[in-house]
Amino acid sequence: MAAHTLTKYVLLATVSKVEMNPVWQQKKLRKFCQENGILITAYSPLGGNKEGTWRTNRVMDSDVLKQIANSKGKTIAQICLRWLYEQGVSFVVKSFNKERMKQNIDILDWSLSSEELEMIDQIPQQKGNPAISFISNQGPFKSVEDLWDGEI
């Protein structure tokens, strides 16, 4: 096939790896990906990040997620991972702790109720990783607003 023939085609990603968790749900992106047959893999599904000045974890500190976890006898991490699973999202979780690894797998034999899903849906949204390391006076992105589409 000649190189010029490729200009007739639009190639879409088949997988999009993005930050996603109950505190940064990416609703518009999830809808776009679903409509276009793009799978999502969530990174930072438990809200951990190495950037930013606040050094807090709004996911693991969420009162809503704590309440749901307590009522179900599950961990907050399990609630987060089960929520992602129910959204049809794959995820990458980092853990070196064997007990946590076992807990992370134990999300398949139970589900979140519609009331619990609604509670999670109402959690105020905020990006956990603003990608500040990409901001530079010498680069194309001089501010966080230049980099993101308004959903920070």
Automatic annotation (TrEMBL):
<feature type="domain" description="NADP-dependent oxidoreductase">
    <location>
        <begin position="15"/>
        <end position="123"/>
    </location>
</feature>
<dbReference type="GO" id="GO:0016491">
    <property type="term" value="F:oxidoreductase activity"/>
</dbReference>
<dbReference type="InterPro" id="IPR020471">
    <property type="entry name" value="AKR"/>
</dbReference>
<dbReference type="InterPro" id="IPR018170">
    <property type="entry name" value="Aldo/ket_reductase_CS"/>
</dbReference>
<dbReference type="Pfam" id="PF00248">
    <property type="entry name" value="Aldo_ket_red"/>
</dbReference>
<dbReference type="InterPro" id="IPR036812">
    <property type="entry name" value="NAD(P)_OxRdtase_dom_sf"/>
</dbReference>
<protein>
    <recommendedName>
        <fullName>NADP-dependent oxidoreductase domain-containing protein</fullName>
    </recommendedName>
</protein>
<dbReference type="InterPro" id="IPR023210">
    <property type="entry name" value="NADP_OxRdtase_dom"/>
</dbReference>
